[in-house]
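Re: the request from the purification team.
They wanted to know what the chain is likely to look like in 3D before they choose a buffer screen. I agreed to run a prediction and write the result into the notebook, where they can find it.
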Amino acid sequence: VQLQASGGGSVQAGGSLRLSCAASGISFSRRGMGWARQAPGKEREFVAADKWNGLDTYYADSVKGRFTISRDNAKNTGYLQMNDLKPEDTAAYYCAADRFLIRIQSVRPDNWGQGTLVTVSS
């Protein structure tokens, strides 16, 4: 099982980035998918998740209205569109997949991908 996150980078406050999470060895169509982030010196925190059908989405309060999670099950790939980025969004972002969404929301999924770094400057 491998989850590869990509799309991170450096942007100014107010900018946008789109993260991607490509899965191999598992089928996204049978699993929830989500994102968490970890800033330096802080614990990993939940960001967003969606059910296998992509119709039910969940967000941390800090990103609601700015971030959008989506997926393409045919490509076994998930996405996180991040708009109106703020300096406090600076973190390494990790994608996750699990049969049970609650595990992703609790930041304890079966599978974590490698992180991709997002840096937002003021």
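For the purification team: The chain has a mean pLDDT of 94.
Please add any questions underneath this entry.
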